[in-house]
Amino acid sequence: MKTQHMTTKETAEYIGVHPDTLRKYVHQEHLPVLRFPGRRKWMFRKDLVDQWVEKRSEPQVYINDQLEKETENQEYGQIRVLQP
């Protein structure tokens, strides 16, 4: 099976963000990108983008501004916030 590649514009449309936001994700959120020496053009592998989105969409539980590592079968007290 051949790996599908997307341009910056195609990838931004695929995940539903503006291309500037996509660039921010590359620089600040470690979105995987392929960049070839001597070229300014970025290419994104669809399978790596899917993995990145899936990992970022896992809920995280914060209690009193502290990230809880263990989230299964626990009862929580005061504040419970789920963030994607």
Automatic annotation (TrEMBL):
<dbReference type="InterPro" id="IPR036388">
    <property type="entry name" value="WH-like_DNA-bd_sf"/>
</dbReference>
<protein>
    <submittedName>
        <fullName>Helix-turn-helix domain-containing protein</fullName>
    </submittedName>
</protein>
<dbReference type="Pfam" id="PF12728">
    <property type="entry name" value="HTH_17"/>
</dbReference>
<feature type="domain" description="Helix-turn-helix">
    <location>
        <begin position="6"/>
        <end position="57"/>
    </location>
</feature>
<dbReference type="InterPro" id="IPR041657">
    <property type="entry name" value="HTH_17"/>
</dbReference>
<dbReference type="InterPro" id="IPR010093">
    <property type="entry name" value="SinI_DNA-bd"/>
</dbReference>
<dbReference type="InterPro" id="IPR009061">
    <property type="entry name" value="DNA-bd_dom_put_sf"/>
</dbReference>
